[in-house]
Amino acid sequence: MPREFRKREEGNELIRRFEDHLKKKKSEFFDLDAYEEIIDYYLFRGKHNKALQAVNQAMNQYPYSTELLTVKAQVLSNLEEYDQAIELLDQVENLHPNDADVLLTKGSIFSLQGKHKEAIDCYERALDFTEDKDEVYYNIGLAYQNTEQYTLAIEAYQRAIEINISHDGALYELAYCLDVTGQLENSISYYKKFIDEDPYSAPAWYNLGIVHNKLEQFDEALQAYDYAITIDDTFASAYFNMGNTYMNMGEYPKALDAFTKTLEIEGPSAEIYCCLGAAYESVEQYDLGLKYFQKATKLDNLYDEAWYGAGACLEKQEKWMQALHYFNKALKINFENPEYWKAIGNAEFKLGNTVSSLDAYEEASKLDPEDKEVWLNWSFIYYEQGNYGKAAETLDQCFPYIANDADVYYRMAVYLIEAGRFKEAFNYLENGLILNFDGHVALYEFFPQLETQKALYKIIEQYRKENT
User: Fold this and answer.
1) More confident: 414 or 2
2) CA gap 91, 107 in Å, rounded
3) CA quadruple 433, 434, 437, 442: dihedral positive or negative?
4) CA gyration radius for the chain?
5) How does 297-312 read in b/e, with b if 16+ C-beta sit within 10 Å?
6) What pLDDT, in 10s, does the model give residues 441-461?
7) Measured between alpha carbons, how far is residue 420 from residues 32, 383, 392, 430 in Å?
8) By three-state DSSP, how is residue 230 classified?
9) 420: region left, alpha or beta (phi > 0 left; psi from -120 to 50 alpha)
10) Is the pLDDT of residue 278 over 60?
11) Rounded to an integer, what distance in angstroms lies between the CA atom of residue 47 and that of residue 51?
């Protein structure tokens, strides 16, 4: 468990003195507390090499400080020099076998190395020597969770919550583990038990809301989030999840209000800008949606969902060239997202770039063969070209992945009718009628000729009479 470090303002006198000391290589004395502040300063800003330089200077001045050995181990851990860090901690542990900070730091480093069994051993030994037992149990839970030992993780998180009912992390991870093990429904009574003991626990209400949301019990989720916000009106995560719940319910203006409140409390982030963009897109305010998605990309240039969202807003306005630019940006970041390939396929098709469109849909079909929209759109390109046989051949590839979908059967019937393969077409038509009789109206969009419509109508009516 890494030690916490203190924030210091840029350019403070102590740091100026230390850096001047390094630059001029002049001898200057700093007391141990000063060195700790200097090291904290660099760690907080991610300047780990400078922190290492500072701790080495400190150790030259205070060679017998075991505390500095522990600090150096953390610095080395941040530099991913894990083995060296463990060696230093072993030295300290030999001198102070009951030092909880040493054991917790070792546990943290073992976890970073993926040595979860060793980490758990350190954490369990630390329990006898620390007052922060809830945090230790939480870390034990994480270690078990990382090795997919969810039952043991649940037990550890429950122990953490028994000690500290407001431990946000344990409450959240417990819900996740209960979900994975199929116990999510049962967890509602578990959270309610803690709420009965402490009805003013905003985190407990919040996590109860998360459970209801995962179970798609949206009204109950909103009620729980509302309680959390009533207790703590600065609970940004509750507002954020309330926004997501409203999005799931299709209540987009309310989602906008919740996301806006989150932004007011937490300040800007790529995630909240992306959520605002999606909400504005959903209420068909595409320019505002685009604006927020663009803001998200400026905060995080590698946020592929934001690039995709911007493209979606432009797509809705039929600005295909601009949309394609954003979709390609998203794809470069996440090459294996089928939604991005599908969006590119559609944009390329609209721009008349048939070959590129076909290639994109083919990639999408490999990544998500169960998405019928990919197959329908991909085969439709061949249909538009008048290549009905190729359209049918392409669509036929989806049947191992998509069974019993009326839309696919009706579309195959269309392609086969156009190819003159009527007997096969009527077999597919019958399957479509069996699966969803009312769906047959989609056929008439492909056959505007009245005579063809009459022939289809006759077959469909004959089927209706035989099955009533």
Assistant:
1) 414
2) 15
3) negative
4) 30
5) beeeeebbbbbbbbbb
6) 899 889 888 677 788 888 888
7) 89, 14, 12, 17
8) helix
9) left
10) yes
11) 6
What are the pLDDT digits (tens) for 128-154? 889 999 999 999 999 999 999 999 999
Close Cβ partners of 19 (under 8 Å, ≥ 6 residues apart) = none
Q: At what angle do helices 168-180 and 184-197 cross, to 10 degrees?
A: 150
Amino acid at 68: L
* Number of residues in the chain: 468
And the tokens for 450?
Answer: 């009245």
Q: Which two tokens stand for residue 164?
A: 């500290």
What domains does the chain contain, in order, with CATH numbers?
1-128 (1.25.40.10)
Residue 330, exposed/middle/buried by CB under 10 A (0-12, 13-18, 19+)? buried
Burial of 372 (0-12, 13-18, 19+ CB in 10 A): middle
Helix axes 372-384, 338-350, angle to 10 degrees: 20
| DSSP tag of 235 | -
pLDDT of residue 2: 45
Q: What proportion of the chain, given as a percentage, has pLDDT over 90?
A: 58
The answer to which of 18-27, 385-394, 419-428 has the lowest mean pLDDT is: 18-27
What is the pLDDT averaged over residues 250-266?
97
- Whole-structure pTM value: 0.75
pLDDT computed for residue 167 by the predictor: 84
Residue 395 identity (one-letter amino acid): L
Q: Which of 61, 55, 131 is nearest to 88 (CA)?
A: 55
Which two structure tokens, joined as six digits, stand for 420? 């003159």
d(CA 255, CA 276) in angstroms, rounded, equals 8
State the Cα–Cα distance between residues 50 and 210, nearest whole angstrom: 42
Report which of 204, 269, 258, 205 is spatially closest to residue 236, judged by C-alpha positions. 258
CA angle 440, 452, 429 (to 5 degrees): 35
Single-letter code of the amino acid located at 203: P
Q: What is the pLDDT of residue 27?
A: 65
State the maximum Cα–Cα separation within the chain, in Å, rounded to a whole number.
101
Residue 228 in tokens: 């959390």
Q: What are 451's two structure tokens? A: 């005579």
Buried/exposed 431-468: b ≥16 CB within 10 Å, e otherwise: bbbebeeeebeebeebbeeeeeeeebeeebeebeeeee
Cβ–Cβ under 8 Å, residues 341 and 354 = no
Query: DSSP letter at 131?
Result: S
Reply yes or no on whether the pLDDT at 11 is more than 70: no
Separation of alpha carbons 362 and 360, rounded Å:
5
